[in-house]
Design goal:
Blueprint: H1 3-9, E1 13-17, H2 21-31, E2 36-40, H3 43-53, E3 57-60, H4 69-77, E4 87-91, H5 96-104, E5 109-112, H6 117-156, H7 166-183, E6 186-194, H8 197-204, H9 206-223, E7 230-235, E8 238-244, H10 248-265, E9 268-269, E10 276-277, E11 280-288, H11 295-311, E12 317-322
Parallel strand pairs: 1-2, 1-3, 3-4, 4-5, 11-12
Antiparallel strand pairs: 6-8, 6-11, 7-8, 9-10
Helix pairs in contact: 1-6, 3-4, 8-9, 9-10
Length: 323
């Protein structure tokens, strides 16, 4: 059942606050068939029950000892937890001044005694319908917020590995380069490629290929887990990691750890010309940012370092550094 269905099906609840039992019994008889009824015989008990039960509507007498209805209403409307609950005054005080005071202190309606049962039922029904609509709107707003958060995650996250996707990678790289330019700190980029991944897919199939990429995603997360690090799936069998405030030698150490951690997983890759397990070729670039060294430049330098790793035997880390 959705939140919308729960709100629409729930039987609404009314609290009657009156120090005269006969008045409570009259209202109870009028309303009990359609609603769940609670009652209190004093203002203090009324406030306590409101906070305990959170009714949908309060029918409130004014003339009560110790704490009158105006005080109860003002107290409830002054509390963010109960301010949204509608209050209807039902009272023998029928002057314009009394009604104005009641509405000014936050009541949504004002009914004078002796009451007319059809009028009470109609007004209660109307205000409860409005309350249900507000509750439904609030629930839909919550659901919409949750859906928007899910969409934001989907917009940033690679569906297969759970790492950042290419779009999010691009956004973060641009932002971190600008920050590195302001702070004069190093920024390093790690770019890696699964060795002979086409042969892996041909040998084991695409389902196994997806599981292999997911395993590499796990190793990426475990390796690049410092605050600010962003491991990402760059595309296909390529992965990347943005390492803010990281000097080239630190980035190389992390890249080498990534390569070794993947080898420790010992994922089989038993194909002619392959080492027998899944490996990565890695390129690293570490720079002190300048206006000329934009995201495209940094990616190109990391890609060239990656190419050197592939050309010199694969399963290795190659790096360049620029002051």
């Amino acid at each position: 059942m959705t939140r919308k269905d729960a709100v629409q099906r729930r039987r609404q609840r009314i609290l009657i606050v009156d120090d005269t039992l006969a008045n409570i019994e009259i209202l109870h008889k009028i309303l009990q068939a359609d609603h769940d009824i609670f009652f209190a015989k004093s203002g203090a008990d009324g406030v306590r029950i409101v906070k305990q039960e959170m009714p949908d509507l309060i029918l409130l007498d004014i003339m009560m000892p110790d704490m009158d209805g105006y005080q109860v209403c003002a107290l409830l409307k002054g509390d963010p937890q109960t301010a949204h609950i509608p209050v209807i005054f039902i009272t023998a005080m029928g002057s314009d001044e009394d009604e104005t005071r009641g509405l000014d202190c936050g009541a949504i309606d004002y009914i004078t005694k002796p009451i007319s049962p059809p009028i009470v039922k109609a007004r209660v029904r109307n205000h409860l319908e409005l309350k249900r609509s507000r509750d439904l709107l609030a629930e839909l707003t919550v659901e919409l917020g949750e859906k928007n958060r899910e969409l934001e995650i989907l917009a940033r996250e690679d569906g297969l590995t759970g790492l950042a996707n290419r779009r999010h990678f691009n956004e973060v790289l641009d932002a971190e380069l600008k920050r590195a330019l302001r702070t004069r700190q190093y920024l390093s980029l790690v770019l890696c490629d699964v060795d002979f991944f086409k042969k892996y897919n041909d040998q084991y199939g695409h389902v196994a290929g997806d599981k292999c990429l997911q395993a590499i995603g796990d190793v990426m997360r475990a390796t690049f887990r410092r605050a600010g690090d962003l491991p990402a799936r760059y595309g296909g069998e390529e992965f990347a990691a943005i390492l803010p405030d990281t000097a080239p030698d630190q980035a190389v150490q992390l890249a080498e750890r990534l390569r070794q951690e993947l080898m420790a997983r010992d994922l089989p890759h038993l194909v002619d010309g392959v080492q027998g397990q899944v490996t990565l070729s890695v390129g690293v670039v570490g720079v002190q940012a300048t206006r000329e060294r934009n995201a495209e430049w940094v990616i190109r330098e990391a890609d060239q370092a990656l190419y050197r790793s592939k050309e010199t035997g694969r399963n290795r880390v190659s790096a360049v550094a620029y002051d």
